[in-house]
Amino acid sequence: MALRKSVLSRIVALHVVAVIVAAVLLRSVLHWSLASDVAKLQLSTMAAQIEMFARCLDRPATGGWSLRLPEGTRDQYSDSYGRYRYAIIDDAGAVIFSSRPDKQPLFAIDPNATGIVPHKARTPGGAQTIAGASERKDIDGHPVWIQVSEELSHRDVIVDDVLTDFLQQVVWIIVPVLLLLLGADIVIFRLAMRPLHRASDRAKHISPTRLDVRLPTDDMPSEILPLVEAVNRAFDRIEKGFRSQREFAADAAHELRTPLAILRTRIETLPHSEASHALERDVENMSRVVSQLLDMTELETVMVDPDAVADLHEVCVEVAEFIAPLALRRGKGIELIGADEPVLIKGNAEMIRRATRNLVENALHHTPEGTAIEIIVDPDKSISVVDNGLGVPLADRKSVFQRFWRQSQGSAGGAGLGLSIVEKIVSAHHGNIAIEDAPGRGAKFTMRFPDS
Q: What is the pTM of this model?
């Protein structure tokens, strides 16, 4: 499939077809041209022979005809030699002289013909090909037809053999030359395609975090340049749209923080009651959504430094200390399990901290009162968060990482951003996240990071 869609493969296939067609046509054209030249040469030779017979033909005053052929010519037209024939016919159609044993004309005579008339025939049975010519001559006021012929299949006639051998040799020359030209075309095409390959390599680096990258226009073929420029203008518009979206989300989140802080302060001054506690939970959830919105906007541009090092154990300790007061207020616990020694990976500690905090906050929302959330740090460079909730159905385990997805549209709490943030952070570190059923209870989310 890839080969069929390749521009280069299509051009090569078309060139191969062109080479075959060109070889066949060129052979046919050469055959026709060479055969035409051979026919002209034969006709010219026979015209010279007719002129020779006209010079040797005489009509004495005593009457009758005489033909005085040179000795060599007489042998050449002898029956024993068998290659050449001649016949001289008077205007009444009677044969005067003939080298044929039966003394018959070589070819039928057209009384209305003028000039030299070419002939081509085959002997009875089609075993031999004969080429000849006829011409009307006036000898001492008496018109006669002089005919000459040559047997082309005679062993001394090498014209057809030369023609056949030449064409075979031409084919062996033409095909390699055309294939060599095909190879040269491929090299030339590859050189011409280099700007497109550079543009393709550059396009691979375009992403939401690198929207400033543009396709190069240097040395771009004029036929492709308008397309490249149009793509670059489209990227300009996309970058502007992404930037506006990020700026709006960040501005909205920042603007909401101050009213939420004021609202939290005013709620704290209210008398303690069930309503005040509900309001506090609502403000906490809103503050969490605002923080997640800020995280989402930052993740669009944050790059992981390949030289940065993060300690997973330290990250989990900090998250447990940060979440513990909130968990205690809700009647829930936090347990840190696993390695007490540093577990180092290459990555951004702050981003991993945010991912872990989002997992723990998600677990805190789903685990019931009186139970504890477990944060497990494994030396195999993974972090697991286990809750005691209802778990995640198999059908929902891919959907939970989508933005704004919630298992129940009527459920309270988050906006469905936390797990999406986790998935983005883990992907930025070239790791993976998996969901499993916790032993005898809720869900277990595990982030695994590469060794190096």
A: 0.46
